[in-house]
Amino acid sequence: MTKSFIPGGGRLAMLAGFLLLALVPSALGQEAPISDRVRLGMDRIVFSRAAYLAALEQVVNPPSIVGTTNQISATWTNGQLVLALTGPYTPTTYTTNGVLYGAGAGAILATAQAPANSVLWGNAGAPSFTTSPTITTASFAGTSTGQVTSTTYAFSGDVLALGTAAQPDKLLVQLNSNTVYKVSYAASAFYGLARANGSFGSATALASGNVIGTLFFAGHDSSDITTTRGYVRGVAGEAWTSGVNGTYLAFGTTSSGSATVAERWRIGMNGGLSNTGAEPTTTGIKLKAGSGTAGTGPVEYTSGTIETTARAGLYEYDGNHRVTNVALLRMPLGGTLFDSYADVTVGGAEADIFTNTLLANTFNSNGDKVLASYGGNFVTVGTELTELRVKFAGTTIWDSTGVAPSTGTTSWAVSAEIIRVSSTVIRYNVRLNTTGASGYVYNTVGELTGLTLSGTNILKVTGLSSGVGSGSGDIVGKMVYVEFKGAA
Predict the structure, then answer these.
(1) Which class for 205: exposed (0-12), middle (13-18), buried (19 or more C-beta within 10 A)?
(2) What residue spans define the domains of the chain?
(3) Which CATH architecture has domain 336-485?
């Protein structure tokens, strides 16, 4: 007859049996002597006593999980799981304010205390603190507008450098001096702003007037940082399509005593410069009109010393506005080349009253003109004869002939007009106006050939006197001016 061994009564035996079924299924069905068999429940399950006791022991006190050095052990004690660290650990003491890290089997180490403004750094070795970290990022693909690949970031003092391993200093940020600059090797440095309308993945073209990008300036006004008070702005000047991308640059500032920024200058789509607030209608410069208020005139020059050597196209101001033409002829506005109001006296033998040397290429183009105006007095005490002559390039182009003016002082005026016909020919018109005498040649029109107008040429008025009472002082030059008029 089978003997029952059911610790704690039938219910506990049944529970143990069920647990045994779950935990030790291999105990079922084992053959054992009849005296060593155990019946569970309604004589339905029979197995050996040894197997039953072994299964019950695992339920009450399962085996412990014991770790090796520097691991965690798990131990069952009276039905409870107890966790514990298994030592020993080295070292037994650690740096104050250090950070612990693993150092292989059986060792946990600590870093040194961190210096000020440092970060914990690891580069495939023991971690440490540094104030000059270097990070190399993995490459990743960008969009059609750019790509970032293997970039190195490094600190050196107060400078943050961004670049690649081959070129470590491509973008520098100098923290203490508030400076950012880019260094490029064997190529121009580049910084860009770009815009698309629409949304990411569904971009659309720019419309006319769209601001592409802005470099703006702001500052603290004693209460807070202001909004934009100055800017450089790129703007789409027309609706963009493929191959049609008109763009202008606008420059904005804030007026003195104001807090409102406004566009002041614009470099237009075709290169013109304007301060009208609109697209320039020229590839040159277009200026807004003055308002009549002081300081609103379109252009104001500062008086200064003009250049020693004239240059074609130069515009200068030394108290007079001066321009230089293509022939390097420098003249004030209005074209005056020479003027004088000093008294010059002559008499007797022929002598120069006024002499002016015209620069090479004064007559640069057909139609270029020189206009000369002379004035003075005849002073006679007897019956002397006075005579005036106008000469160009050594040739007399007009002679008044000798005439005896009235005794005393009378006036004379001579005007000469010279115009280029070709590089070797000029035509002239000389007129005399005087009082108290008759018989002079009052007007002469003529042509002079065989000239070299590309060189310098002298234009002069001379005077002479003869007869009873003639001598120095018979003719006095009082004033002259010579002006240039370009071809129409």
Answers:
(1) middle
(2) 10-60, 100-130, 134-139+146-182, 205-239+246-254+261-286, 336-485
(3) Sandwich (2.60)
